[in-house]
Amino acid sequence: MMEKAEGIIIKTINYGETNKVITLFTREHGKIGLMARGAKKAKSKLAAASQLLMYGQFLFKRGKGLGVLYQGEPILSFRSLKTDLNKMAYAAYIVEMLDKLTDSNIKNPYLFELLLQILSYIDEGVDPDVLTRIFEVKMLKTAGIEPELNACVHCGSNDGPFSFSMSSGGLICRRCSRNDQYVMPISQTSVKLLRLFKYFDLKRLGEVNLKKETKDELKHILSAYYDHYSGLNLKSKRFLDQLDAFEKNLASPKR
Questions:
Q1: CA within 20 to 30 Å of 132's CA: 110, 114, 185, 196, which one?
Q2: Helix (H, G, I), strand (E, B) or coil at 177
Q3: Which pairing describes strands 67-76 and 30-36: parallel, antiparallel, or unpaired?
Q4: What pLDDT digit, counting tens, does each position of 82-108 carry?
Q5: Is this structure's pTM higher than 0.70?
């Protein structure tokens, strides 16, 4: 039976000389795998409809394994995102993380809206570094590794200032941190931002303007936490880190 769904392509794999296998994240069905036959041919009607980050309406038939893609009509092109290496690198990381942390055929309209909103903001020029940190925080629940961000993970105290305990999985107060050898320093600004990122509605995002030190600290904490608890090994993250290191080298004064 033919089905129609709104979706975003989050992964593409070349299959044979002319075909592609795509992973489509849909509002209606969650994540599904589809064969796009002939999509690598220049004149194929599926050539444009099977590109990474294509957001549109798709016509397909699902099967026990891979389904078959028949048609895709774009809704939004993300033109700015796709022509900017930096923006594209962040977007690739976001969709790879989503792919690794979700199972197929499980409907999740919230995650679909989150992905669409994040990609739209990146395309519009909102700071992709901050958007990526927001996405990472909101995906912690999906990954099943949410840290304690409301109080001390050991004693439940709400009295700061806090540090971050990687071994215990969350914030830790000054008293309890004396017995934790894996404690990491964290500014109270970052503590507030982690809590904000977890709870606030992304559609209500206003102007984003964080200090570089704060962005670097959030990235360090979240990267270490995902490395410790999730087991994710993302090619897109390695590329993003290399891009970041390259930009830092360009910006550093030459002796």
A1: 185
A2: helix
A3: parallel
A4: 999 999 999 999 999 999 999 999 999
A5: yes
